[in-house]
Amino acid sequence: MRATAQGIVWVGVFLGICVAPLAFALMGVSRPGQGFWTDFSVALGFVGLALMGIEFALVARVRAVAEPFGTDAVIQFHREIGYVGLVFVLTHTALSGPGVFAAFAVTELPWRARFAVLAVLALLVLMVTSVWRRRLRLSYEVWQVLHTVMATLAVTAALVHVLLVNHYVDSLWKQVLWAIMSAAFVGLLLWIRIVRPLRLWRRPWVVEQVIPERGEITVLVLRPRGHGGLCFQPGQFAWITVGRSPFSVTAHPFSFSSSAETDGTVAVAIKALGDFTSGVSAVPPGTTVYVDGPHGVFSIDQYEGAGFCLIAGGVGLVPALSMLRTLADRGDVRPVVLFSAHRDQDSIPFREELAELTGRLNLQVVHVLEQPPPGWTGERGYLDAGTLRRHLPSAGPRFQFFICGPNPMLDAMEAAIPEIGIPADRIHTERFAWV
């Protein structure tokens, strides 16, 4: 109920921020010769700018914002309103005099228009490099730096453009409102780039162990240095910075693989997928690490149920493993069914530990292999509703369902699970492929 109330509040805040800028246009006095379309384009521009500012808040890793919805849902919303904001800004540009054609004669424009063109171009670069990052072969690290720079440039240039236009901020109350919005934007930048890194810098961690695992996975065991560590819920994740300053732009999200009941150390399991992750196995013990977390609501501690069904594909097994280890350490006797989907038998990580956990928990493990070895008697192919029906107990409809893995698997499971009679409020997902 608390999360629901928070969600309602944040939806109200979002709508208020979107609507408030319309006051600049609706309550302003039109100049001679300034008609409806000019005022309409200004209104679109203000709303587009408000949406751009909201984008910063959505990725500021503020737990109170993400908690009611889940981090992957917030990231998806961030992506979708980015499209909407771009439409508003481009429409504003097209309706404002020379519009998009002004970009080809930027040296002949007044400074207020130059900053408008700069904001639009930065926004376009940001969108293109985000939507087609993989096609452009941009590494995650390069994209993250580019995304941060272009977003900051777009919003800053837009703010300067509004101030130079002046007509819509020429009265005291408008200036106060605009000052509040600008201060909020600057405050977010200070929080993201200064305050939060300073807090992380004061709470360093050190790599204690580097453990290779099947499926091209490396486990980093981290120990706090000079502080008491952190508490997390099984299934949550953290943003990790390895061997770099906490002020660096690039950080990577990884799920905790260790039990939430373990004191002191925490562990993250990282699959080699390219870029930074391919070099994790070579990280030497003793390397300084900064841990920004915990984040996320993908956890058995968030939802009460008669039992749990964990559905994991590939590295999506990591948060499920944290849940299982935690349940075992707590002595929880509720039934758990784990569906673990992988390419082949040799790519199943933590296979021996999963077998050992069946002796400590009321746990059934169902491995599903795309390419099973000769003589394999287990499930083969892809997970579907039939596989779930064959292995879930009669009490399955009262279980809480947690799904983590590649997007195609999540899409398939979100369609299949309702087929076996599971209500939507018992289905929880965590998507890794944000960009």
From TrEMBL:
This is Putative ferric reductase. It is a multi-pass membrane protein. Keywords: Membrane, Transmembrane, Transmembrane helix. It is found in: Membrane. It comes from Nonomuraea rubra. The chain crosses the membrane at residues 7-28, 40-60, 81-105, 111-132, 144-164, 176-195. GO terms for cellular component: membrane. The lineage of its organism: Bacteria, Bacillati, Actinomycetota, Actinomycetes, Streptosporangiales. Pfam families: FAD_binding_8, Ferric_reduct, NAD_binding_1. CDD domains: FNR_like_3 (cd06198).
